[in-house]
Design a protein that fits this description.
This protein has a single domain, classed as NADP-dependent oxidoreductase domain (TIM Barrel, Alpha-Beta Barrel), CATH 3.20.20. Helix content is about 35%, strand content about 15%. The chain has 11 helices and 12 strands. The chain has an 8-stranded parallel sheet with strand order 3-4-5-6-9-10-11-12. A two-stranded antiparallel sheet has the order 1-2. It binds adenosine-2'-5'-diphosphate (A2P).
Length: about 325
């Protein structure tokens, strides 16, 4: 499978199985179907509340000889309630225990948002830490410690804008190796991609299919459908593939890692097969020329009157 390369020579398969929203009871089988189909990369996070079950599937895969640990690339993410220096390593160790692994391949700061210890989702102003309480540089120092102790091979961030990437790169002894953000033709993140490329930071596209299975409480009623976008539909017809495969191939064409979530055996296989799609230049340009802009995961659950964080601060009002 096509992969991207880190500066030390390690590679990361360009397609990974997303596990956000995959329920316990479904994710075990999904991970095994993925590995059997040829996936060698699973994207996890502590807040997905399913790492224990993902870990059971990985254990089974390793013990049964389906695949070995060093053939797999496993990512996880530090939740917002563990941003203080003293909390980072214990959080990673808990994830390793759940996943039943000795090390991660990649550990990411999930959001540039900090909650007090033990808070799952902050509801009130007093549930949050501000950047004065816990600067991002402090969290990043914890991430660097994890890497130097061998608990993770690579470290990075998620949902970071340019100024936040600059902040941690300035203070840290090493910069982030990955920035995982929402990316698809309606949110191509041109400015951020250009910046990350210039700094040697790799990128991963989350919600490449628009994450239609989010709970209704975090969905807007007038959201556009990526699957029904006329350009996506036209190209799916032309290449005789599904709309989802066009969306996955869009990221691969940009050398951006992509992590479509599925718990369905047929769709898991179909998503991996998107790697084979080779766009003609003018077809990729058609995707680039879609002028509708939309962010599905706007972080509004972390902002507003009961939070010290703002949308402007999160995204710099950039949707390019
Ligand atoms: P399912 O898990 O039942 O396959 P995202 O990766 O953007 O978060 O999107 C995940 C959503 O897209 C889920 O509802 C998932 O459903 C669905 N999905 C995943 N792969 C496909 C596909 N190939 N065709 C249609 N829907 C898909």
């Amino acid at each position: 499978m096509k992969s991207i390369k880190f500066s030390n020579g390690d590679s990361m398969p360009i397609i990974g199985l997303g596990t956000w929203k995959s329920k316990p009871g479904e994710v075990y089988q999904a991970v095994l179907w993925a590995i059997e189909s040829g996936y060698r990369h699973i994207d996890c996070a502590a807040i997905y509340d399913n790492e224990n079950e993902v870990g059971n599937a990985l254990q089974f895969a390793f013990k049964s000889g389906l695949v070995s640990r060093n053939e797999m690339f496993i990512t996880s993410k530090l939740w917002n309630s563990n941003h203080r220096l003293e909390d980072v390593q214990p959080a990673l160790k808990k994830t390793l225990k759940d996943l039943k692994l000795d090390y991660l391949d990649l550990y990411l700061v999930h959001w540039p948002i900090s909650f007090k210890k033990g808070i799952g989702f902050a509801q009130n102003r007093e549930d949050f830490f501000t950047y004065n309480d816990v600067p991002l540089s402090q969290t990043w120092e914890g991430m660097e410690d994890c890497k130097s102790k061998g608990l993770t091979k690579h470290i990075g961030v998620s949902n970071f804008n340019i100024s936040k990437l600059e902040e941690i790169s300035r203070t840290g002894s090493q910069g982030p190796e990955m920035n995982q953000v929402e990316m698809h033709p309606l949110n191509p993140q041109h400015k951020l991609v250009e910046y990350c490329r210039s700094k040697g930071i790799h990128m991963t596209a989350y919600s490449p299919l628009g994450s239609g299975d989010r709970s209704a409480s975090v969905k807007k009623s007038d959201e556009p459908s990526l699957f029904e976008n006329p350009v996506v539909v036209e190209l799916a017809d032309k290449y005789q593939v599904s709309a989802a495969q066009i969306l996955i191939a869009y990221s691969i064409h940009r050398d951006i890692v992509v992590i479509p979530k599925s718990v369905n055996e047929g769709r898991i296989k179909q998503n991996l097969a998107a790697e084979e799609i080779q766009f003609d230049k003018e077809d990729f340009e058609k995707l680039e020329k879609i002028d509708l802009r939309y962010r599905f995961i706007d972080g509004s659950f972390f902002t507003g009157s009961k939070s010290p964080y703002t949308q402007q601060d999160l995204w710099e009002n950039d949707i390019s």
